[in-house]
Amino acid sequence: MAITDISNRKKFPANGNVYLPNIAVIEKIIEETADTRTFHFNFKDEKLREQFTFESGQFGEYSVFGVGEATFCISSSPTRRDHLECCVKRVGRVTNALHRLGVGAEIGVRGPYGNSFPLDYLKGKNLVFVAGGIGLAPLRSLIWNVLDNRNDYGNIDIIYGARTPGDLCFTYDLDAWEKDSSVKMTTTIDREHEGWSGRVGFVPQVLEQAAPSAKNAAAIVCGPPVMIRFTFPVLEKLGFTPEQMITTLEKRMKCGIGKCGRCNIGDLYVCRDGPVFSFAQIKDFISSEY
Amino acid sequence: MNDIESKLRTEARNLLEQGKVNAIIGFAPGSLKFTTTPLITGDKEDTDRLVINPFIANNLSVFIHDIEGPVGIVAKGCDARSIVSLIQDNQLAREDVFILGIPCPGVIDLRKVEKLVGRDRDEIDDITRDNDRVTVAVGGENKEFSITEVLRDDCLSCESPAPKEYDLLLGEDNVVVGDRELSRSHIRELESLPPAERWEFWKNEFSRCIRCYACRQVCPACFCERCFVEESEPQWISPLPRWQDNLVFQATRVIHVAGRCVDCGECERACPVNIPLRSLTGKMDEIVEELFGYKAGTDKDAPPLMTAYVPEEAEDFIR
Amino acid sequence: MYRRKRKILSGDNMKKIKKKDIGKLLSKWQADFTVFTPSRATGVARMEEWDGKDTDFLTWYRNTVIPPKNNILPNMEAMFRFQKDEAGYQLEPVTPEQKQIIFGIRPCDARALTIIDMVFKDTYEDRYYLTRRQNTVLVGLGCTNPYESCFCTSLGIHPAQSADVDLMLTDIGNELLIEEITDKGKELLGKSSGLTDASSNDEDSAKQSRETAYQKVTRKLDTTGIADKLQASFEDKDFWGKVAAKCVTCGICTFLCPTCYCFDINDEISKGSGARFRNWDSCSFSLYTKMPAENPREEKWQRVRQKVCHKYEFYPRLFDTIACTGCGRCIRFCPVNWDITQTLESVPEHSAV
To answer: Given CB atoms, is C263 within the 8 Å cutoff of chain A?
Structure first.
């Protein structure tokens, strides 16, 4: 499984200057939670709109000119190409500026950067998706990608949780996956909450209770660092090997192309050799650097 | 090894052995000529490396907050004033520091020596001090200077070279052969310039600033966990090293340390591009003394200058 | 270990120039290039645009404080400008155009550029760095008076010889011997005047001068197996805690280091138009890796570990060269005399992970 094989890395179809963003226009804004929004956008340039390709797991660098640039995964699936999507949580300068934009506003987009989920490895396997909070965003691209090619994959288990019902993202997707009989969907919230009649419990615990089989399976995990740190031991207990556990990491990023130096874990750059990693690659660093 | 050194080593070792402190902060010989380096250790055997010589430049009080629990610290007069100022600001508790006071005869400014002999410090064979004469052995010759020619500027105007706050004073209380006017001569020179020229001077100086933040990091008064330059909402100054932002950074920093700056001179010594930062901090100290009659680090029970309101405030504008 | 082929031309082709004639040579070059020479005119020793007359730098120059990387990867550079009009945002990339000569670059600093070339070429090409690099001719000058903090020889670098420059000058007393190293250098020689042929005596003097310089580098560091040693010690919190204790996490070592290249990207805007810049950043700063949820290098021992391991373990694993050239600036200018050679020498022997 060549998760960090960069030889087939697609280079951004730009004019040779990797730092120059392309202009994109916001077409739709969905308020996922009080502080999280999904933006639907498309490149202004027609040709680019047609030419642009990416794979699930890759990310872009999104600019609000004059404020700065920030990194978000492309949360739409490459199988659905009428527009692109990214999901932004309001945490700082650039994200606040993005949240102040309306439909029709112009942003800069560089990408796609990074590696992608290893579809070749995942094909034919039973897939267990484990996500928390906004961590569902990169996984969502992969889930729709998989569902749009349903016959290539085995069983699909999705376990998704958030702190409170108001923190659940992509509720429209959760509804669709709930209704899909080929998917086992479990949504949970951390603690009892008024009006919530669904599952209650932290994602790692719910995962342990669901106990999906590790046989011919792969687990794809994304969420807050603390959730990931507790999920891996549970998966190990269930019999998943480090190669069978895949995650996508988040780091402070600026250039997105492995030059500015800051997103490294050892000699791996999360922007260039990741953000998708198998646990086998990062377990030596997991306690210190992540 | 001199008398003070041997006393210091014994005391430091005892403190660790008796478990009175978790660590000792002092000076050890550096890896370059005429340099010492901070020694921070919980191992009593390391105390044999402690030294006291004319090159103990650092203000060690910046390291106290790194250590859990009580710490024994070697302190010159300026360092002790910093410790007092930190106590005033509630950054440390008095009982958590055991101050090993060193009556300081002044620290030699290597930049001054280099300028006087026209050679870099690693080309000099020896620098020795005998009271108020300093002998520099370079290129086979011995050159003699008066101490006031080679002492750091901040030492020249030091009013309390021996710590007034201490647990143990390793030597006799002393006075530095100082020259306050000489120490402040650059400030006086700048004051004599018309404002436009003074602005040009600082604009020029800050064009060299590379925003390494060494001035801030070596300063004990800069104890903020998140410095104002690291804020992004709002972004007070640009992270880009333009002279305008560099100047505003330093001016703001100097104002932030008003009432806390003890004129240890470390900011200027640390600056790799030779910006005369003490001319700003020194002027700030003079203003603080003039307006409030206050000198940083002289009274550990006094409320900090800028964060305390006293109803009997002398100034009309604030009543 | 990275090695670069070095052409050595025969004595017939070697030229030399009298030190007192350097001014004329620089003037000639100034017609076609912006010439940078060592200068203290701004208050700190760095490569500055030659003022047209000063050649005194030949008397005091040992090495600059700000490394010559500043001329290829500036402390602050605009990447593109943007403007908003009725049609939306218009972007205009900034192209570095200046043809420049860096006169007097030392072998350590020249090697440093060769080392960081690799990261700027890798996978995606960084046209800002690479354009400046292409537009720059390096005229190297061999050391005669290394600092006590220099340790270039321990990293396979000779203080007075270099294959990383376009022309290499060796100090032979009143004159400088000139060797062509690359075609770019040859082309520059073609635009020169005031040169005379060097004799075999001159070459002998040069050899002598080089050897003397080499012997003067007394600080040594044994880098055998350092990458593996560092990897095995990665989790040794006690060791790194001790190493980092006196570091104050300023940016001096990283900013003055000729092989450090990490940068930050920042926008500026005023009344609807502005630019995106990049500027030097440092892994020593806590903000460097800070994320909203957490900071993987919150504590200073983690940042100090990153700095050491990046130079002596991670970069070598990626590009087969240690990202350090022994210029010694980090040791000379560190306000607490933190010394990387001492740290590396004290890395404990752990059994392999």
So the answer is: yes
Question: Which CATH number belongs to the domain containing residue A184 in this structure?
Answer: 3.40.50.80
This complex has an ipTM of: 0.94
**What CA–CA distance (Å, rounded) separates B24 from B12?**
7
C-alpha angle with apex B273: B270 to B278, nearest 5 degrees? 55
A236 domain-assigned: yes
Same-domain status, C56 and C138: yes
Residue A165 domain boundaries: 119-250+278-282
Residue B8 has pLDDT above 80, yes or no: yes
Residues C98 and C198 in one domain: yes
Q: Domain check: are C179 and C306 in the same one? A: no
B66 Cα to chain C: minimum distance (Å): 8
pTM for the whole thing?
Answer: 0.94
| pLDDT < 70 positions in chain C | 1-13, 351-353
* Residue C43 structure tokens: 């208050």
CB-CB: which of A224, A255, A266 is closest to C265?
A: A255
- One domain, residues C208 and C269: no
By C-alpha distance, the chain B residue nearest A68 is B232
Whole-angstrom CA distances from A166 to A30, A100, A188, A192 are: 14, 21, 12, 13
* A179 three-class SS: helix
pLDDT digits (tens, 9 = 90+) for A162-210: 999 999 999 999 999 999 999 999 999 999 999 999 999 999 999 999 9
Domain edge (last residue) among C193, C216, C239: C216
**Start-to-end C-alpha separation, chain A:** 23
- Contact predicate A219/A245, CB 8 Å: yes
Tell me if C350 is assigned to some domain: no
In a domain, C1, yes or no: no
Domains belonging to chain B, first-starting first, are 3-109+151-308 (no CATH), 110-150 (3.10.450)
pLDDT of residue C276: 97
- Residues of chain A with Cβ-Cβ distance to B232 below 8 Å are 92-93
Residue C352 resides in a domain: no
Number of domains forming the structure of chain C: 2
Tell me which chain B residues have a C-beta less than 8 angstroms from the C-beta of C62: 120
Categorize the per-residue pLDDT at A1 as very low, low, confident or very high, splitting at 50, 70 and 90. very low
Q: Which residue of C has its CA nearest to A14?
A: C124
Total structural domains in chain A? 1
Residues of A in contact with B233 (CB under 8 A): 92-93, 96
User: Is A261 part of any domain?
Assistant: no
Among B49, B206, B212, the strongest candidate for a mutation testing the C interface, having the largest count of C CBs within 10 A, is B212
The 10s digit of each residue's pLDDT in B65-106 is 999 999 999 999 999 999 999 999 999 999 999 999 999 999
Whose structure tokens read 């700003």? B280
Is residue A251 over pLDDT 80?
yes
Per the prediction, chain A carries an average pLDDT of 91
The domain containing residue C278 runs over which residues?
Answer: 226-345
Is C265 a member of any domain?
yes
Q: Which residues of B touch A (CB under 8 A)?
A: 232-233, 235
SS3 readout for chain C:
CCCCCCCCCCHHHCEEEEHHHHHHHHHHHHCCCEEEEEECCCCCCEEEECCCCCCCHHHHCCCCCCCHHHHCCCCEEEEEEEEEECCEEEEEECCCCCCEEEEEECHHHHHHHHHHHHHHHCCCCCHHHHHHHHCEEEEEECCCCCCCCCCHHHHCCCCCCCCCCCEEEEECCCEEEEEECCHHHHHHHHCCCCCEECCHHHHHHHHHHHHHHHHHCCCCCCCCCHHHHHHHCCCCHHHHHHHHCCCCCCCHHHHHCCCCCCEEEEEEEECCEEEEEEEECCCCCHHHHCCCCCCCCCCHHHHHHHHHHHHHHHHHHHHCCCCCCCCCHHHHHCCCCCCHHHHHHCCCCCCCC
Asked if residue A228 is part of any domain, the answer here is yes
